Amino acid sequence: MQHPSTTKKYEVFEITMTGKTTGNPFTDYTIEGVFKGKNETIKTDGFYNGGGEYKVRFMPSFTGAYSFEITGNFSDESFSGSFDVTENDKGNHGIVRTQGFHFVHDDGTPYYPVGTTAYVWNLQSEEMQQKTLDTLAKGYFNKIRFCVFPKHYLYNLHEPISYPYEGTPCTFSGDITGNFYQLMGVQPGNNWDFTRFNPAHFEGIEKNIERLATLGIEADIIVMHPYDRWGFSEMSPEQDDLYWKYVISRFAAYRNVWWSLANEYDLLRKKTTEDWERYAAIIVEKDPYNHLRSIHNCGPMYDHTHPWITHCSIQRTDIYKCAELVDEYRIRYQKPVILDEIAYEGDIDQGWGNISGQELVRRYWESAVRGGYATHGETFDRGDDILWWSHGGELHGESPERIQFLLKILSETPGPGLTRKPAMWDEVCATADVMGDSGYYLYYYGFFRPCRRLFMLDQNTKYRVEVIDTWDMTITDAGIHSGTFRIEMPRKEYMAVRVRKI
């Protein structure tokens, strides 16, 4: 048995043991750990990591002395021990939780999700992965959506660097075009053993989860998806359940993990609502840390009122309206709303991937001032079939810096986030989502471009007023005002006004 003598709060504590290798260790043997500290007792499953090696992982939420006991039929021995947990590093705020319609870390630090999507960046070459991490290090985003399984779709016809199971893939060549549904479909010739995992595939994902944590980025892990020629989307219920339990046992101890049950669950034609509810029950039972949980749609949305769903992960279903529906979603589901797919900045031949950077940034702001959140994606056809939306790498669009600017504005909100406030018909106004009058107001004008605006606020309170150009990323001081007053505007689109009580 090997393990460190100390670890830090909210970090992964890992115990490694040798055990039985006869038969199929992935299915024939069990291993679990119980970890006890003064303030918590956590029970978690371990996993087989190949080569006779078994591991159990734990994430402590408190400092102090801990003890553990490892049991199971993976070994004829029993294992126990102790370790100390010290204070976490600055910047490590623990797991993200929901708080009303918003998000907060374990230590109480507000979290404003400003995310991006790069579905299989983690399954590209090491050089491409590093390019992605270098781009993310610039601080544009604090969440990224990506898959465990490889992806087969437009611009995604090559093989990944690894596969999740032992076996061999089908032989595939050619340029798939035509009908949308022809792009999805298992090809003949796959030869997988769905009872034997490839640990190296999962170790690669874990390495990137850790890299993201170092950058302060949440890993929104898409566990299942329909874009598949290898057969991973058509496994049996027993094979699915084995996969879910293995994924949870490997990833759950990382503080920055989110569970997205599926990207576009409704396109997984052979999965039923009963299947999705069974997967959810497995997460609830097996994840002792209660990481955030969601499920994402293509067409019809899942019923986000289900208690296991912590927040809404939504793809727009209307060609024109998306962020404008945040109000409706909040009322209907009574949970935080993240529009994880609102179309991408780009120029490809698909309508979901050719909006302008200005329109994407507008949708971000519309989402934010209505009390929701949005997710970025980029799909520029540069002739190399490398699109950030799937492969990661480098960004070429105009929106990332503007999205980062919005994150700065959100981080200056008094409280965990924004909520809608009644305003004039041609503006959207938000206030801080706190008890009582926060004295904080954020007005957004979108594609309107007024020459001036009239404000009517409390005449006994002084307010600092600022005019924000959300595209040029400037903040102009418009003075101190009280009561009823007018503010001159630059007659431009995408302007906002921030009013803060002095």
How would you characterize the overall build of this protein?
With 502 residues, this protein is of the alpha/beta class. It folds into three domains: 6-86, Immunoglobulin-like; 96-411, Glycosidases (TIM Barrel), CATH 3.20.20.80; 418-501, Sandwich (Immunoglobulin-like). 20% of the residues lie in helices and 30% in strands. It contains nine helices and 31 strands. It has helices spanning 25-28, 126-136, 199-214, 237-251, 273-286, 326-333, 357-369, 388-391, 399-411, and strands at 6-8, 13-18, 32-36, 41-45, 47-48, 53-58, 64-71, 79-86, 96-99, 102-105, 110-111, 115-117, 143-147, 165-168, 191-197, 218-224, 257-262, 293-294, 312-315, 337-341, 345-346, 373-376, 378-379, 418-421, 428-432, 440-444, 452-456, 463-469, 474-481, 484-488, 495-501. An eight-stranded parallel β-sheet has the order 18-17-16-13-12-22-20-19. Helix 4 links the parallel strand 16 (218-224) and strand 17 (257-262). Helix 4 packs parallel to helix 5 and helix 7 (357-369) packs parallel to helix 9. The longest helix has 16 residues, at 199-214. The termini are far apart. The mean pLDDT is 96.
